[in-house]
Structure to design on (301 residues):
């Protein structure tokens, strides 16, 4: 059974070779066949040249998909799934925080449980800023409250799954993709295992607070229309309150008018977000653009 290890990379020049060597040391002699599928997501450092040299020199099965610019991790995941040829596919970050040993545990579980389609790693503990942990926990509580799809708290993109599941994911036509939501929405039997992320070898995380907040908002808006229902109700209440306070010269009346105006702007903002998504989908632009695809000598294209 062949494994495709899909590794999205964005400015990971110092982690490419150490991760490659760690995977080789873990997989060689244990897995009968596996391939690397690196997706260079428009890196601005030396990630591209390092991957090119690796593809030229390695005796392993290795593909490198180079984007024309940075399209984001979601696009890189989709490209990796489309390029992979394995019977099993594994998503792994390129920063050495996710261990290849855990991948072997995932594969063994799938081999021992043929009815299971996917094994997903869940962060057992997070060495992060308490405020960041609070917002992440709040995200899962909110999205599970407002959607009909269950999102496993702290489930990562680090997972191994069968080809049948990958084919369903790549067939979905949506342009604005939220992988956590896609994996949850399509169903399939998933087993969750705990893991603790290792320390990053070099570089810094690309996921700051603002980017994570945008990611969370995208996820919520992609899998529920309840914010629109909230906007409808809040808009009706605020409009009624504004009419009631019309003409009142008291400080309370002025404050009420100001408050209701703010609620109405919030409602317009929510509506605008959904309209923007419709607009983006209607344009029909591709999720990503591939500049070139490199491969090692052992791969025939």
């Amino acid at each position: 059974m062949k494994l495709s290890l899909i590794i999205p990379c964005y400015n990971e020049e110092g982690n490419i070779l150490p991760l490659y060597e760690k995977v080789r040391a873990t997989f060689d002699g244990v897995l009968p066949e596996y391939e690397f599928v690196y997706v260079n997501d428009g890196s601005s450092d030396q990630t591209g040249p390092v991957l090119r040299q690796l593809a030229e020199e390695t005796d392993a099965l290795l593909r490198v998909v180079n984007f024309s610019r940075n399209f984001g991790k979601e696009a890189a995941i989709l490209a990796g799934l489309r390029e992979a040829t394995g019977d099993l596919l594994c998503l792994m970050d390129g920063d050495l925080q996710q261990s290849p040993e855990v991948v072997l545990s995932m594969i063994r579980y799938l081999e021992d449980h043929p009815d299971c389609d996917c094994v997903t790693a869940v962060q057992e503990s997070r060495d992060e800023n308490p405020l960041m942990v609070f917002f992440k926990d709040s995200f899962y509580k909110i999205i599970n409250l407002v959607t009909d799809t269950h999102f496993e708290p702290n489930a990562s993109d680090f997972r191994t799954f069968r080809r049948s599941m990958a084919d369903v994911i790549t067939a979905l036509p949506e342009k604005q993709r939220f992988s956590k939501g896609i994996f949850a929405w399509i169903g399939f039997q998933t087993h969750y295992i705990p893991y603790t992320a290792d320390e990053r070898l070099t570089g810094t995380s690309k996921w700051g607070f603002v980017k994570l907040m945008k990611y969370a908002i995208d996820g919520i808006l992609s899998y529920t229309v309840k914010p629109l229902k909230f906007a409808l109700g809040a808009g009706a209440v605020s409009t009624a309150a504004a009419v009631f306070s019309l003409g009142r010269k008291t400080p309370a009346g002025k404050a009420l008018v100001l408050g209701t105006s703010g609620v109405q702007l919030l409602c317009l903002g929510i509506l605008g977000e959904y309209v923007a998504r419709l607009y983006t989908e209607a344009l029909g632009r591709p999720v990503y653009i591939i500049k070139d695809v490199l491969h090692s000598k052992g791969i025939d294209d």
User: Anything to note?
Assistant: The chain has a mean pLDDT of 82.
